[in-house]
Write a structure and sequence with these properties.
The protein is of the alpha/beta class. The protein has one domain (5-414): TIM Barrel (Alpha-Beta Barrel). Helices cover 33% and strands 12% of the residues. Helix 8 (280-286) crosses helix 9 (297-305) and helix 9 (297-305) packs across helix 10 (310-318). The longest helix has 20 residues, at 142-161. The termini are far apart.
Length: 450
């Protein structure tokens, strides 16, 4: 075994991961309109497993098709998708990595609705529209809450049946669980609103329902937003504090969670998640896909499109970054949560320097780190660290061009300085699409459906 704590196995209650590096959830439009995973999805997830991470936390996977952020994301809402997820798990396992599927629901944070959401308001904890893009929504009834709880439990069962290694509840970054948890968003007057214990009820009931459905032996972790910083739009309330997050983490542990994954921010994207830049010039060419998604889409597009208006958005966005590091942006929150729970704690936040990660583990700030965009830049980052290098020769620049291209273009690294020329960049991004699937001719009796 390596003396480097980064490469010590991490043992959870029912799962052991070979090192302390997790590929964090990061989503792109790789899949079919009906939510079924594709070979492209397998290629995408597996390249990070081949690069040496201990576990893949899947891209955002909705438990109901209406819970997608963007159409073209894989879902786990149907039993007949189980064999497809099994193939994905097998591919990741072939590289010695574990696969944890991230169970999710967008709620009101819906970017490109797709055909399933085109004619209805997304469900949320509130009927107040989402403040950045202006997506209108409808507060869930108690019956709809119960249906969604069951959908999460059924999805966890499908993940277990597919032979996957565990699941993660995406309770951060502004999605449905966050909409219930946050004091800045949740304005309900029933037992799912008001004090923190009520706002946490939905999440805790989902954890209990999953345990009832799959038993105690299937790994279950919770990605938890530590500090909301919900006032990206200045007139919105700040939302939950770190003390709130510590209490929620303790409750999650008490009802059956095996780990906490610490993040930050009450929306995605958020000034602190992902950390780094926000290239408005690129966004001006990609945000048009979202203009009709919310009441504020055209306003935002104009702020991005015209250079004279960009300082308005830049002030609102970048004012919240002051005083926060880029790498390790959530380490202070992780330290507080880890001190309050007995289960392992993973933290995300722009990691790509081995000494920073090593020190955090040695100091007991976290048990492991989750990385997304730095791994897009260097898929083999774990192997780079294992070779003794502290940082890649061509590190991620935190430009976030990968982020702002995602609504319109394939997910990948769009930092031009990392490539010899644009053709090389495009070829690299498109490499996961070289699938050459066998096509079938529809029989006279009907369409080919498998």
């Amino acid at each position: 075994m390596s003396d480097d704590p980064i490469f010590h196995p991490l043992a959870f209650r029912n799962l052991t991961v070979k090192n302390r590096i997790f590929r964090s959830s990061i989503s792109g439009r790789f899949d079919n309109e009906d939510g079924s995973p594709t070979q492209t999805r397998i290629n995408w997830e597996s390249k990070f497993a081949a690069g040496g991470v201990g576990a893949i936390i899947s891209s955002y996977v909705p438990v109901q098709i209406e819970g997608r952020i963007i159409a073209g994301y894989a879902t786990i809402h149907r039993d007949d998708f189980i064999p497809l997820w099994a193939k994905l798990g097998e591919s990741v396992h072939a590289h010695g990595a574990k696969f944890i599927v991230q169970l999710s629901h967008s709620g009101r944070q819906l970017d490109v609705p797709g055909i399933h959401n085109a004619e209805r308001k997304p469900l949320s904890a509130t009927s107040r529209k989402e403040p950045i893009n202006g997506v209108q929504c409808q507060a869930m009834s108690k019956g709809q809450i119960q249906q969604t709880i069951k959908a999460f439990a059924d999805a966890a069962w499908r993940a277990r049946e597919a032979g996957l290694d565990g699941c993660e509840l995406h309770s951060a970054n502004g999605y449905l669980f966050s909409q219930f948890l946050s004091s800045g968003i949740n304005d309900r007057q029933d037992e799912y609103g008001g004090p923190l214990e009520n706002r946490a009820r939905f999440l805790l009931e989902v954890i209990r329902a999953i345990r009832d459905r799959v038993g105690p032996d299937f790994h279950l972790q919770v990605k938890l937003g530590a500090v909301d910083n919900n006032n990206v739009v200045p007139w919105e309330k700040k939302g939950n504090t770190l003390a709130d997050a510590v209490q929620i983490a303790q409750w999650c542990e008490a009802v059956g969670a095996d780990a906490i994954h610490v993040s930050s921010g009450s929306s995605f994207p958020h000034p602190l998640n992902p950390p780094g830049g926000f290239p408005l010039d690129v966004l001006a060419t990609t945000y048009d896909t979202m203009i009709s998604s919310g009441d504020y889409g055209l306003r935002n597009y104009l702020l991005f499109r015209y250079p004279l208006l960009r300082p308005i958005f830049r002030w609102a966005w970048f004012r919240m970054k002051k005083g926060h590091p880029i790498e390790g942006v959530s380490l202070d929150a992780s330290r507080a949560i880890k001190a309050a729970v007995r289960i392992p704690v993973i933290v995300t936040g722009g990691f790509q320097t081995a000494s920073v990660v090593r020190q955090a583990i040695q100091d007991g700030v976290c048990d492991g780190v989750a990385i997304a965009r730095s791994l897009i830049a260097n898929n083999d980052l774990p192997q780079i660290w294992a070779s003794g290098a502290d940082r890649p020769e061509r590190p991620c620049t935190y430009c976030n061009r990968c982020l702002v291209n995602a609504p319109k273009n394939p997910l990948g690294c769009y930092e031009p300085g990392r490539y010899a020329d644009r053709e090389t960049m495009v070829e690299t991004i498109m490499s996961i699409y070289s699938t050459h699937a066998d096509l079938k001719v529809s029989a006279s009796a009907g369409l080919v459906t498998n």
